[in-house]
């Protein structure tokens, strides 16, 4: 008689183990589904345009160790301008201030405020004069562009030498 009573108990225990396994599996699948959905690209409407934006919680963005300041952002934009101008001038085209406006980086907050001294501002004035000369004259633009890049090198030899490698790639004779 004892064997007869154990069979329903064993079946009942097996049922609970199977129920527990299904519950664990279901919780695992639910967690995996939630994680995948959280990292899915989402559409965000900005100014009546649709943009695909990846959820920032799923990406570890590269962070600048120096907390990028406005002056650095302006200089990076101008370096991009110069790279585009280099390609246009090498293709025989002219450049103008409508497409490539002078950005007043000297008035923006720098990464290191110790650079804000007389030599820096004199270099900035020389750079601005070279930029304006480049944009005013459609003749001799290659020579004027070279003068602009020379002003960049001149200043960065005294302040913030990090970008010099990139600046030297902006010369007209640089081959990619």
Structural features, described:
With 176 residues, the protein is mostly helical. It has two domains: 2-58, no CATH class; 70-168. 57% of the residues lie in helices and 6% in strands. It is built from five helices and two strands, in the order αββαααα. The protein has helices spanning 2-38, 70-90, 118-136, 141-158, 164-168, and strands at 42-46, 49-53. The chain has a two-stranded antiparallel sheet with strand order 1-2. A hairpin with a 2-residue loop joins strand 1 (42-46) and strand 2. The longest helix has 37 residues, at 2-38. The termini are far apart.
Notable traits:
two-stranded antiparallel sheet, single chain, 2 domains, mainly alpha, 176 residues
- What's the main sheet like? 2 strands, antiparallel
Distance between the termini: 90 Å
Describe the strand arrangement of the main beta sheet, using strand numbers. 1-2
Tally of extended strands? 2
What does the average pLDDT come to? 80
**Helicity, as a percent range:** 55-70%
Helix count from the secondary structure assignment: 5
Radius of gyration: 31 Å
The general outline is: elongated
Structural class: mainly alpha
Order of helices and strands: HEEHHHH
Number of domains: 2
Uncertain runs: 43-61
Q: Which strand-content bin applies to the residues?
A: 5-15%
């Amino acid at each position: 008689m004892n064997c007869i009573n154990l069979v329903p108990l064993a079946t009942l225990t097996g049922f609970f183990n199977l129920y527990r396994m299904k519950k664990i599996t279901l919780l695992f699948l639910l967690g995996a589904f939630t994680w995948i959905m959280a990292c899915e690209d989402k559409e965000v409407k900005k100014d009546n345009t649709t943009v695909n934006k990846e959820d920032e919680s799923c990406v570890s963005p590269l962070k600048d160790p120096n907390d990028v300041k406005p002056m650095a952002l302006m200089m990076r934009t101008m370096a991009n301008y110069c790279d585009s101008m280099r390609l246009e001038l090498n293709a025989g085209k002219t450049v103008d201030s409508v497409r490539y406006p002078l950005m007043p980086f000297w008035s923006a907050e720098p990464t290191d405020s110790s650079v804000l001294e007389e030599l820096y501002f004199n270099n900035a004035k020389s750079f601005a004069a070279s930029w304006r000369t480049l944009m005013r004259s459609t003749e001799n633009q290659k020579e004027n562009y070279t003068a602009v890049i020379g002003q960049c090198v001149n200043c960065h030899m005294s302040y913030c030498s990090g970008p010099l490698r990139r600046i030297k790639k902006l010369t007209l004779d640089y081959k990619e």
